[in-house]
Request: fold
Amino acid sequence: MSKTQTNKIVLSTNKLAIGYRRKKKLQDILKNINLTIEEGTLTAIIGKNGVGKSTLIRTLAKQQEKNSGNLFLNHKNAKSYSANEWAKEIAWVQTDIQIPVNLSVTEFVSLGRQPYTNWLDMLSRKDHKVITNAIELTDITLLKDKKCGELSDGQLQRVYIARALAQDTAIIFLDEPTTHLDIIYKAKTLGLLKQLCLEKGKTIVYTTHEIELSLQVANQFICVSNGNVISETPQYIIENNLLDRIFENDVVFFDKKSKRFKAF
Reply:
């Protein structure tokens, strides 16, 4: 990967292979994945539909088992972490799950504290402080007493992110955080993620189809194409025409000057 500076590596893989088990047999959809993700960076995973983006991010977040190879968190093999230890390091935001409509925003955000609460799930003074801070950071204070079923898609995205912040992890993974949002909320959501990296030092990885917006905010792109996974800076993928190779077709092309996709 082309880099302008070197920060602490917080997540890495070595010859990682991902996929599924079919009829008791492992089937790789991507293999020989060697990635590094640095502290405090925003990383976008891109590629056509069906190439394995969601499988990759789920595996990196340990939401599904890898097929082979190694995943490291802070240079320690991920398999050595207990489930609770991992939950204190990694937050997973899956935005296509249904939030219980009768939960209030504060109640849902409070679920992020589960790795820290006692067996009675009693919230301490510190827990309440972290929850309040997460709500304030995501600018949903005016929504905190509303039922989740009353919220718009854009508002719900911020609630999902607030729950991840309440979990108080160094790394956050999000699968398609801008799906079903209009352009204003897409920009606001990606802007919030960038703000959390810059101001709070969070390391955030997300899958997306919002290439043009992501070019403006992401530090790194993980590109999935034709069974290959490569990691590069936005500048590198633009200058070396990687977007045209990834999304090769006869309908659109990527214009370097405007940094936009255009029709032929």
DSSP finds nine helices and 13 strands in the chain. Residues 136 and 242 are 38 Å apart (CA to CA).
